[in-house]
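Record 5-methyltetrahydropteroyltriglutamate--homocysteine methyltransferase, 778 aa.
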Amino acid sequence: MAQQHNLGFPRIGDQRQLKFALENFWQGQSDEAALQSTAQQIRQHNWQLQQHLQQVPVGDFSFYDQVLDMSVTLGNLPARVAQLNGTELDNYFRIARGRSAADSHCGCVAAAEMTKWFDTNYHYIVPEVTADSQFELNPQRLLQQLKQARRQGISAKPVIIGPLTYLALAKSKDGSEPLNLLPRLLPVYSQLLEQLADGGAEWVQVDEPILVTDLDSQWKNAFEQAYHTLKSNRPQLLLTTYFGKLEDNLQLACNLPVAGLHLDVASDQSELNKVLDWLPVHKVLSLGVINGRNIWKADIHAILDWLEPVAERLAERLWLAPSCSLLHVPVDLDSEVALDSEIRNWLAFAKQKLQELDLICQAINLGRDGLDASQQAQLAANRAALQSRRASPRVTNPAVQQAVAAITPQLGQRQSAYAQRVLQQQQTLTLPLYPTTTIGSFPQTSEIRQFRRRFRQGELSAAAYQSYMQQEIEFCIREQEALGLDVLVHGEPERNDMVEYFGEQLDGYAFSRFGWVQSYGSRCVKPPILFGDISRPQPMTVGWAQYAQSLTAKPVKGMLTGPVTILNWSFVRDDQPLQTSCEQLALAIREEVQDLEAAGIQIIQIDEAALREGLPLRRSEWQTYLDWAVNSFRICANGVSDRTQIHTHMCYSEFNDIIRAIAAMDADVITIETSRSDMELLQAFEDFEYPNEIGPGVYDIHSPNIPGQQQIVTLMEKAARRIPAQRLWVNPDCGLKTRQWPEVTPALQAMVAAARQLRQQAAHSAPARQNGAEAVSV
Ligand SMILES: Nc1nc2c(c(=O)[nH]1)N[C@@H](CNc1ccc(C(=O)N[C@@H](CCC(=O)N[C@@H](CCC(=O)N[C@@H](CCC(=O)O)C(=O)O)C(=O)O)C(=O)O)cc1)CN2
Ligand SMILES: [Zn+2]
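=>
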């Protein structure tokens, strides 16, 4: 008999209950008891949904992030919060956000760095370590939840992040090697495992997704060392990997002294035969057979075709699961009553994926012929749904396919090189040294969201909606003029999200109403669903951009999301290569770029926030990805005249590895995140002698803390030691939509004042800016 289990369930709640509970708590509108009670309800509900599983994940719930939770469990919180007053939860949120609910009037501490979880759009809080880091077990969260789950009658399997993945994700604050901490860390893990066993856990899921990445011999040896130290029969360990193949780590993973191994085989079963040969016969093999990252119905017959012989070989040793935690998919398709029923029939969210898993498990245990009538009907319905998707004329658009086939290299070429373009752009734009700008969005107030909701629900006419949004744009422009910014933006009030907004307007996309997925903390996205060939029926942003430009003499940046980012933050097709989908998007956005230029917009920003995160986890696959990703950006961006200044923006990115690709994008200006990492990222741009302009983010917009003028000046001085001042811009490190106006206004005042100070300093120490723009306004 095969068993079924799950690696993790979405914790935001089917109506985003956790989001609202957190935000109320942070704003001081509710107390910790209310927050804890919402959390408990969500956990109970999730466990109930999964109670038919032989092993239900516990500890997958988190108030902010599971990596930060692990830091708490290991007693590894940054020293800077240790002396502060307040509860454990206060310190937890201080690290995550820079402040707790109790700190409403101060910017008490720097938030920890936040970065992408592998190649997903989920962000974790980076553990901080130094050579002196000490660990101390704090198992209360896990033990309590284990107890609660067991009280509910659940067969509970605690989930923890394994020691190697924890150290691999950690960042050293003093240049020391995090891996050196392993001997100090392991005793704490041993204690934790023992206490979980005492708490009644028979199995513990130890997540080591780092095993699907390239590991050098030092890390491979460390795996051996760690798991030989942790070796225990009580509890049994399920070594869990996901997001890809193990490749040269496969043998290592098979042979570590644990009781079971979980592999992601949902989209690629090529390693399975080796595993069956190599895995010692006493071990459980858990197979991730359902894709935990997309929203398509699984092809159950196809899965059974390859799984049945495997099941025969493994018998009792086979466990079945989704490929990874279901954190990355929405909760329940049943809520999507408004979704086109044909497309809806092609989809499965978290709850439906567990139903698919159940059906697969039954078919394995009873045989396809042994299923009862209702199960047979489900199987037939699954086959019919897949056929309907494959045959649907809505998926294909011959004109789009022809356009993609006709793409030539010329399509991605600017007329002249940057060195020539910049002269023309300086003539028309006449910007000062250290030009100031923002990344695009201004606060998405609850009023703006209410208007959007009322319009969507038909309570507001299109004309009334447009006029409200225009007022909002005007307000934004006037604020920016008053602040003295040099390049303005319209503020993006009309956008629910930078990707979903475009998805809604492009043909080939469907979108959900409740399909929320956590991105970081309380923040969620509703990734649009790319199901067919992409085309742009009409301009998507031109009216708003033109209106904004009509209000001011300063240049207003047109604001678009690039093809790679739209692709990476959508649920993508699994029936054609990503490259093809990306090229289709590139052609659609290119039309928008050209329409903006024709409408008189002189600066166009094309955000590629997710270009870096789409990088495959394996280096051997990087170049192929970068080639088509950069090419798609170039197709979309480079159909403009030399006078039009193209900006791009990337956030939370490590650029060292991909600096060549960034240069190959050939944007005139790139704005990037650097503030939480103290301008460290600029090293790559300096080493590479990056030729174009850069706006290194001077303050962290993800924290409510307000930066000081001097702090910004210091950061920019640091930047100017690496990059010539003539090529530097001054801007926040990302859009301001998650902030409130009382935070934004003083922060931008400080930023503009800092730019003025920098110009003054430059005027006193050096000749005025070369190449035009001699008017150094201060
Ligand atoms: N797709 C994507 N990925 C990204 C980013 C991004 O901007 N987009 N940024 C980076 C960081 N990630 C982020 C992810 C989400 C948000 C964010 O602000 N999300 C919003 C939701 C945005 C949204 O879609 N809002 C809709 C719907 C909002 C809503 O809840 N409406 C209510 C009613 C309105 C109200 O009372 O507030 C309803 O429908 O019931 C809208 O504004 O129209 C949130 O969680 O609060 C920010 C950053 C990396 N990844
Ligand atoms: Zn950004």
